Amino acid sequence: MTRPARTNSPWWWVPSLYYAEGLPYVVVMTVSVVMYKSLGISNSAIAFYTSWLYLPWVIKPLWSPVVDVLSTQRRWVLLAQLLIGAAFAGVALTLPADNFFRYSLAVFWLLALSSATHDIAADGFYISQLDDHQQAWFVGIRSTFYRLAMISGQGLLVVLAGFIGRTTDDPRLGWMVTFYLLAGLFVLLFAWHARKLPASNEAPRLDMISLRSLFGQFAETVISFFQKPHIVSALFFLLAYRFAEAQLVKLAPPFLLDERAAGGLGFDTTQVGIAYGTVGIVMLTLGGILGGFLCARDGFRNWLWWMVAAINLPNAVYILLAFTQPQSQLLVNAAVGVEQFGYGFGFTAYMLYMIYISRGEHSTAHFAICTAFMALGMMLPGMFSGELQEALGYQWFFVWILVATVPSFIAASLIRVDENFGRKRAGAEV
Questions:
Q1: Model pLDDT, residue 361
Q2: Does domain 9-195 have CATH number 1.20.1250.20?
Q3: Looking at the predicted structure, is the pLDDT value of residue 206 above 60?
Q4: Other beta carbons within 10 Å of 292
Q5: CATH 1.20.1250.20 fits 214-416, yes or no
Q6: Model's pTM, two decimal places?
Q7: Max alpha carbon distance in the chain (Å)?
């Protein structure tokens, strides 16, 4: 691979690049739910329409080859960041309109498409610009700044919007200011990366190979994925492991925000931001770190069932909250922390299994296909979760969530994984 003779240090661009990758994703998937609930949209509409926003990540592998040939990864990164900034401003512009829900959803879909494209280009740029040693060195840095983006989105942004809305008695104004600030931030990120991203010597490959050849190779890659051993049980695992979580994630924030008379906890937007964006993210991160450490020490199979239990059984805290409706912020934060720690610990199994079934030739493309099934597994159950909650009420909906964990246990029982996968080999260096 040809590399430029002189590049900016990765310290100048890796942290900011992965902060820019994480922020629009969390805004699309989580912040949008909180915003729509605070603006009076029904749970069924929120769950159905925001679940559709997963679609760009579902079909991301289909256009990743096009991104690779039409222009350089660096140019795609910069273009996507401009589009993301414009989409953030577009959301703010639609909020004063009478039909703001319809218009803002259209802009959110543009935001999701731009964010998914940014993921393709940013990850490709990271791989092409850094050698194996640098990639290993900076993987923790990129993960840390991606997590910081999650904290910023679920925490700081939600708290800011809630504070402005409460101070001005105008929730829409709070969200408008927040999204305009996001737009300004991405203009700054674009300017920073235009200066700091290394200029690559690689040119678009459109003239080097024909599109027919390109898509022929892509088809071969996809076919080889579906020819893997035990692929049916693998796909069932990818789709079913998070079946309960996909429904819970769409209704947990509305539950905290809904009035107590409607079965919710009556919290304000700021309190929700604190619960999920600070306590929740910290515990999620700790759970993920612990899960990775234990699998590296003892192997994936030794911790699989503990992780299946961890990602599912802590969902029971919402049953407790729904039936008792506590008013204590501390108690709610503790419950959210328990659930998020379990989710972080249990999600480790999902990530490791995607790595496991992606091994071999075309591993990068096969992992991208796995992430598409992951997005589909979140999208489909989430779409009907709002109507189900409105039919059952919060109390029995959360009871259903615990019942809905059963497919996860069934899926885990069907997969086949090498006994020593994930375990440190004797004499291997960390």
A1: 76
A2: yes
A3: no
A4: 16
A5: yes
A6: 0.83
A7: 66
